[in-house]
Amino acid sequence: MKLTDIVARCEQLFEDLQLNAVKEWKAAQPGRKAIGYMPIYVPREIIHAAGMLPVGIFGGGDQLEVIQGDAYYQSYICRIPRSTLELGLTGRLDVLDGMLFPSICDVIRNLSGMWQIMFKDKYVKYFDLPQNYVDAIGGEFYVHEMQQLREDLGRLAGKEITDEQLRASIAVYNENRKAVRELYAYRAEQPWQAPTSELYLVLRAGCVLPPEEHTQLVRAYLAAARAETRPRRDNARVVITGSFCEQPPLSLIKSIEMSGCYVVDDDFQLIQSWLLDEVPLAGDPLEELSKAFLHRSTSTSSKYDEMKEDKGKFLLRQIRERGAEGVIFAAASFCDPALLERPMLQGILAQHKIPYTAFKYSENTGQMAPIREQAGTFADSIKLWSAA
Amino acid sequence: MSTPIQIVPGTGTAKKPPPAQKEDSMLLQKDLINGNYHELATAREMNRKVSATFVPGNLNELLMCFDFARSLPETNALQNGMRKKSGKMIMDAERDGHSEDVCTYVKADLGMMLQGQVGPTGEPLPTPDVLLLSYTGCFTFMKWFELIRQKYDCETVMLHVPYQGDGKISKNMRDYVLKQLKENVIPTLEKVSGVKFDIDRLRQYMKESAKAEEDLVWTLQSAKHKPSPIDGYFGAVYYIGPIFTAFRGTPEATKFYSVLRKEIEQRIREGKGPVTPEGEHPGEKYRLVVEGPPNWTSFREFWKMFYDEGAVVVASTYAKVGGVYDFGFRHDPDHPLESLAEYCLGCYTNLNFPQRIDMICKYLDEYQADGLLINSIKSCNSFSAGQLLILREVEKRTGKPAAFIESDLVDPRYFSAANIKNRLESYFQMIKQKRAASTAAQSAVQPPAMH
Question: ipTM above 0.85?
Answer without folding.
Answer: yes
